[in-house]
Amino acid sequence: MGEFAYPRDEAIWTTALVRVLNGLGVEGHAARQAISRSADAGWIERERIGRTARWRLTRSGKKIIEDGLHRATEFLDRSEPWDGRWLVLLVSVPQGERTTRKRLYGGLAWLRMGNPTPGVWLTPHVDTAGDLRDLIAEFNLTETAISFVGHTEDVGLSDEQIVQRAWNLAELANTYQTLLARYADHRPADGDEVLLSYLELRNYLQQFMRLDPQLPEELLPKWVGHEASDLFRNRRERWLAGAWERWEEILREARPNGAD
């Protein structure tokens, strides 16, 4: 829905969502559960039309999509030259608060922060300080967290060592190589094939946006992620029109007789 219902604010019939999810390998019952859970999370809301239903993005759902689109644009564009500064966070969560710790670490990873030593998180993307402030406030950690921006000194870990310790880039590089090999010669015909290929690749893009810290070239030259970004851009340009055409057909086929 984030791909096809935004920003048009179009309501989508359940049958259309289930049909596409089936094509992506999500069986009927699991597809309906996914829709229900998305509604429970407040991302989408249901409109009853007789015995059928259709779904719209909520305000919070649209906000998530907007944030994701902004991140996707950053991901697909090469980073600006780095000035050598890090945004650093010193924070710890009590051992008994495992759920809080897990959610916090997930939020920090989304902000492209790495963890080179216990209790220390950092990122070269210093412009995310505002988002970090909101995240720390969300978990009521403002009284115990310390954050600052600055350069490293010739005292402890070097910038190169920080990169090696803060992120598992070797595993990520292997995952990128697998993706590149998979799509190198993939040429979907049309109809469902191009729609599902497009959505599958967009799903991979969302996954890599969470995994790749998008380090500047000064810290990570010749990164395979740049080649993957080129792949995402190229395939989007090739497949977008065909994917939209098939999606519009599915919407028409899913519309109940007499429904607006």
TrEMBL record:
Domain (Transcriptional repressor PaaX-like central Cas2-like): residue spans on this chain: 80-156
Domain called Transcriptional repressor PaaX-like C-terminal: residue spans: 167-244
Pfam families on file: PaaX (PF07848), PaaX_C (PF08223), PaaX_M (PF20803)
Every Transcriptional repressor PaaX-like N-terminal domain range: 2-59
Protein name: PaaX family transcriptional regulator
Organism for this UniProt entry: Saccharopolyspora endophytica
